[in-house]
């Protein structure tokens, strides 16, 4: 349970307060843009800093998190393609 809470706190910090810089928030979706690279580095630094990265539950939860991110992108892409298709 503590690993889940730590991961949730890490995501909150990296995804909200630390994205207060407009260049990061506006450009993290552009591959190779400094805003996205810095955002990814923040996630990586926070992940390494939490300590439980050798714990099995951490990797399972990280995998679930990344899977859900991917599925969300697929669903959004499908939705927008359907919306603009004749």
Report on the structure:
The model has no long low-confidence stretch (mean pLDDT 78). This protein has helices at 2-15, 22-27, 34-49, 56-84. Helix 1 (2-15) runs antiparallel to helix 3. The protein has one domain (2-84). It has 86 residues and is mainly alpha-helical.
Briefly characterize the structure.
This protein is mainly α and 86 residues long. The chain has four helices and no strands.
Percent helix range: over 70%
H/E element string?
HHHH
As for the number of domains, it is: 1
Tally the beta strands: 0
Question: Quick one: overall form?
Answer: globular
Main pleated-sheet profile: none
β-strand amount: under 5%
What class, by secondary structure content?
A: mainly alpha
What integer is the average pLDDT?
78
Distance between the termini: 47 Å
**Count of helical segments?**
4
- Low-pLDDT residue spans: none
Rg calculated over all Cα atoms: 15 Å
